[in-house]
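Anyone have tokens for Extracellular solute-binding protein? Sequence:
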Amino acid sequence: MGENIEIKREMTIWHEFDGPGDTSIEVLEEICRLYSERHDINVTPEVMNIAELGTALGNVRKTGKGPQLAFVPSDMITYNKVGLYSLVPEELYGGLMSDASLATMQFDGGQYGVPVLLGNHLVCYYNKEIYEEAPLTWESIEAQADNLLESGIKPFGADLSQAYVFIAYLTAFGGWPLKDGRPNLATEEMEQALAFLNNQTASGRIISLDGATELLEQFIAGKIGAIISGEWIFNHLSRNMEGRLGVGQLPSIRGNPSVSMTSSIGLVFPNHSLESEYGEDIKSFVRFMLSEECQLLWANRVQRIPANTEILEKLEAAGSPNKRMLISLLKHCHSMPVSPFMIIVWIAIACALEVLKTEGPERALDLIDQKLDIAVSEMEASLNRTNEEMETV
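Reply: yep, here.
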């Protein structure tokens, strides 16, 4: 007779570490493998791009189907109703992280997620062989631009199709995407930021390239002096550039600081999974993710910033100069608003940036002015319908 082979139970975790420069997928897969080896359940990561992840979570309530866990940017906490997220008991996070970190995954007065990684902020990466020190002001970039352009080097690069990157320019002109909880984009500050980018790209001082591929490739190759990109790209750049890589704060513009958003990445529990038969397994996996072993895997293997306060303090004290700078930049950031209206903000800015390339800043601002009120009204109606439907369940 053949031996009885025990078939282990399965849990799935959705995530969006899908870019070629986002080495975080290596650690998530390793953590899932380690946990599966040590317990009587397999945890399987399932990758999708950010748009697919949002759509999938948004369909959980309709379909009744979802994973046991999802590893998401903190602004996806606003999917709590359509994704049927479980509220998180304090036993899973108590004493492990700061109130500010926990707040990134709170919405409607509830804790709907557990932060695992902090950061997600924009950074100025510079090539030390091109800039002797971090270009802290836009004026310093302009002063060196002509010589660099003559040498075939672009002074500065960014992915100007990305709304998240644009926030660095909007804030330098005094703007912020929400006011009194509603989108606030058809403003003079928005027009000034769009005009600045239009002027700088036309002059060749800024080159806009795909942030996941060309921008990084050309920066690593020494064809761009400095770039704006995310904290999450640090490990990829550090591996490829080593001593050539410098990390600095975002350059100020005309004396005004450029401020990045910051957020967290953490675990949410769709389809009320904490109340399911997997509840205890999920809690065990979360505690493993927040353990010193796993938090150091993120920090040491792929240079991410752990949410566990004790581990974070150790890293800040003992890390490399670049790593210490990366962590210290968090102090200069503003938390990303946790609001369902942020999806309108991102779409509106992305549309404006697309129009900016061909029709200029005035037309881009007109587009926002025309579309924003309609989009806000539609969002409010959708939120009201969702609330009404939830009350009847």
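The chain is about 45% helix and 20% strand.
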